[in-house]
Amino acid sequence: MSLPLLVCLIAGFALATLVVVQSVRARAERRGYQAELAACQGKLTRIVQAVESASDAIGIGDMESNSLFHNAAHLKLFGYTVAEINAADEPAVLFADKAVAQQIHQSIRAGCSWQGETDIKDKRGRVFPAFVRADIIRDPSGTATGIFGVFTDITERRRQEDAIRVSQEQLRQTNLELNEAVENARRLARAAEAANEAKSAFLATMSHEIRTPLNGVIGMTNVLADTTLTAEQLKHVRMIQLSGESLLVIINDTLDYSKIEAGRVELAQQPFDVVTCIHDSIAMLSPRAEAKGLALTQVLPPELPRSVIGDAARLRQILINLVGNAIKFTDRGEIGLRAALLARSADRCRLSLSVTDTGIGIPVTAQDRLFQRFSQVDDTNTRKYGGTGLGLAISKRLAELMGGTISVESEPGRGSTFTVTLEVGLSSPKDHGHGAGAMRPASDVAPAALASSPALAKPLSGLGERMPMRVLVTDDNVVNQHVAMLTLKKFGYGCEVANDGAAAVALFERAPYDLILMDVQMPGMDGLDATRRIRALTGSRQRPWIVAVTAGALEEDRLKALEAGMNDFLNKPLKPDLLQASLQRGYEALHSGPTDESGAGNTCA
Ligand code: ADP
Fold first, then answer.
1. What is the pTM of this model?
2. For the chain, N or C: smaller number of CB within 10 Å?
3. Could you tell me the domains of the chain?
4. Which tens digit of pLDDT belongs to each residue from 466-505?
5. For a substitution probing ligand 1, which of 355, 376, 395, 418 has the most ligand atoms within 8 Å of its CB?
6. Burial, 61: exposed, middle or buried (Cβ in 10 Å; 0-12, 13-18, 19+)?
7. How crowded is the C-beta side of 563, counted as CA atoms within 13 Å?
8. In the 8-state DSSP scheme, what is residue 444?
């Protein structure tokens, strides 16, 4: 075989091989492109599906704002087909505000995307708010090829925002109104407080002003009753006495109730003897019961603690009211006071005190309102029995202040039982009762207990001889001076008189007195200042023994007097038995050497 033939053969073979290789390679390459194309198509399909099924409206346009494509949500939101949008007169057909459309167009032209909230308009002309985002579509080389717009209907969000705004506004308005109401309530409270203070001040002043002349009327009537009178004259004097005393009860009740109502009553927390307190109340009223032929009895169980901590004067006030009413509304039979120990702990106990009578009774229908102020079962009672209708209201408030209650059981024609419960502290935990027996008539009351009650001290003739003292009366009111002088005279005391505080100090400097009856409110130097001056002169709180005699009936009046250095406190109208007890206290204190100088233990009327 020749070389050229061989070369031709080899070349032919190589060429054939090359053709085969090339066709194999071309086939392989074709297969690769098709797979890539299929993958691209799949991707494209998914992208189109995603855009189609998006809930936001999506539109694609060219750089001249010609619409090329929009998804189903776009069609639903605007109602336009692509062709309709392109056929529209103006390119900004979708925007309610053409200026915004202009802005977006300019932004895209400048190569920037745009986003914001604006009103858009559908095919039917409905305008609604949307969030619009317009982005530029770029090819791989970065050249802008189209616009991609997304529209989100924010009608619902706006509605919610509006609702929130409205409720915020309502809330703000309500807050304003609330603040106004609170401010109004504060203003009213301040006004009420001021009115209340004015009322209390008015009552205190009125009570003082009324008590001063009443002191004269009652005092002079007492003096007059002690002179020689015909039976007829004595009857008239007794009527004046009774009327004066009734008037005094009304003034005291009114003042007391208004003080309680204004929250100005603070209960004392001092040791006292419950049994003595009950004895005192009963003994005070026994002459009245006797006068009506009523038996007055008391049941004090042996376990009743003797020494308790509380307000003896206020408990006495409740008992006197209940027993006083029982006597007032009973014509036949008896009145019984029964005490019981309801519960006790190491340092406190609950007591109940019941007052039972066999009197006129109270219909069930009237029982509820008994404890309201100015309430009386029957108006004719006012005329027949007198009274203000305040006693039970006061007792109820006092019982509540003592942590207790007051209640009534009654049957018309058969009688009533009023029960008060209260809580007191125990001053001696070992106190296991007073050991007294059952049912004891009031007349059995221990003499010691009676003697401890100033109200019950029997007038002693010749007191001035047995307990001699130099006495000074200080009062600016001539009638009051007279009443004090005559009452002192009855007890065997002479006295000198000063018309005001300055005169009292001057007289005291000249010749010291043992006991001074000192009016508190006086023109010029008042009783408090005069007392301070006298205390400064003597340096002693015990000598002279200074007794405030005042128409001011408030607890703070008493405290002011004690603070100024007075030793004892008597209310006007001056009651002879209370004055007598005070004179005795003064004499005993002056002769007992150094004692408690606080004056806190003194009995105040
Ligand atoms: P006052 O006795 O000053 O009228 P109270 O508040 O003490 O005021 O009593 C109110 C009313 O309750 C009395 O007017 C009377 O009608 C009735 N009342 C109180 N206690 C008794 C009683 N023991 N028996 C019958 N009625 C009573």
1. 0.50
2. N
3. 3-153 (3.30.450.20), 179-259 (1.10.287.130), 267-451 (3.30.565.10), 463-590 (3.40.50.2300)
4. 899 999 999 988 888 888 888 898 899 999 999 999 999 9
5. 376
6. buried
7. 6
8. G
